[in-house]
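Dear Dr. L.,

I hope this message finds you well. Following up on our conversation about the binding site, I have prepared a predicted three-dimensional model of the protein together with 5-phosphoarabinonic acid. For your records, I am including the exact sequence and ligand specification that went into the calculation, followed by the structure tokens. Please feel free to forward this to your student if that is useful.
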Amino acid sequence: MSLLKFSASKVHDFVSESHINSLKSKIESCNTLLHSGEGKGNDFLGWVDLPSSITPALIEEIKASAEVLRSKAEIVIVIGIGGSYLGAKSVLDALSNNFNLLVKDRKDPIVLFAGQNISEDYMHELVELIQDRDIATVVISKSGTTTEPAIAFRVIKDIIEKKYGKAEAATRIVAVTDGERGALRTLANGEGYKTFVIADNIGGRFSVLTPVGLLPLAVAGVDISEFVAGATEMEQQTGADVKFEDNIAAQYAATRFALYNSGKKIEILASYEPKLQYIAEWWKQLYGESEGKDGKGIFPASVNLTADLHSMGQYIQDGERTLFETVLHIEKPNNKFAIPANEDNLDGLNFLAGRSLTDVNHNAEAGTMLAHVDGGVPNISISLESINARSIGALLYFFEKACGICCYALDVNPFDQPGVEAYKKNMFALLGKPGFEAEGEELRKRL
Ligand code: PA5
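The resulting structure of the complex is given below.
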């Protein structure tokens, strides 16, 4: 039995099942391209068979390194941005208590993130918070020169060294970076930090199953073996040898492609579980950076329901009809909670007394799906039996595989991101970086 179920039945009023099925050979050949390595960006296909090639020795090495940090630190600061941040953040949130930071008698260190913004207040408040705590850090940067994490690492490294001295500091800092090149690699080698390598053939947004994601997750106490096992299961179920009818990543890709060509240019990932909010953030990077180029691509957006039904719900129901929705359905909660009866029944909700919140949540979801379909928004459903390390591993690999297929169907290179350089050039010019003087002057005139 698959860890995920896929259904496009609430799409067929908009693009017919037979039309989606007619894309079968195109989609299958895109999947084959990912495996044969003959498509665009084929230097970056290391993620395709990554789950099944993760060795027990690597898992053990990651767990051992995580254990060192866990034994030394009450707070571990994970530094990174984009693909070097969102994977760990999304899985950690999904698998943690909603009120993680306030849980009493916690046995796992608190994992906090830095280097994903340049906010002075964020940094000030983080530094204030860690002043009197035992800390360690995992710094993640493939290039080693990305501005946001590099600034954060300067700060955190300084604090750790002042607090513990250089020798002990080196045992509290782990770097995840390129195997040979880059500023972080040079520094880590020089200082004697424990390091993990991000393979050359895996880009940031496809790196959650490398130490980029696995080390922070292990530090936080996530069962990374289960997480990898779920991804491996999905790798096998979406291989090039799996026929379209059995391959849910291929079906998702075909459905998206058909909807896009029918004028649905925006996909909203919707979830009714607050702890999945960052799964959507990770998904947005994956699809936005991979597909959005050459004037093409579906714009990935997300909503957290039912909260956003009281805000974005209006637009989804009634705004411009260029949307479709992909709903993450969770069959069973990990905990039970029933609605209490109330003597006065002023809110008129006693008809719900004794029923579970999941019952209400599922009915809200079903009602919303039908309303949105009636309003002209096709709905895709992706269903997980429950939220756990295995199912989340499967979900993330499923999205990666479908993303690669979708990009090839659109004939774009899934693995580059030429568009993200434009802001960096302007930022450096405005900041006065040596070598950018002329551009800086031109830009300032335009402000
Ligand atoms: O997906 C990507 O490639 C980007 O989001 C990068 O991961 C991000 O810019 C961080 O880069 P680096 O790991 O080199 O610091």
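In brief: The radius of gyration is 23 Å.

With kind regards,
A. P.
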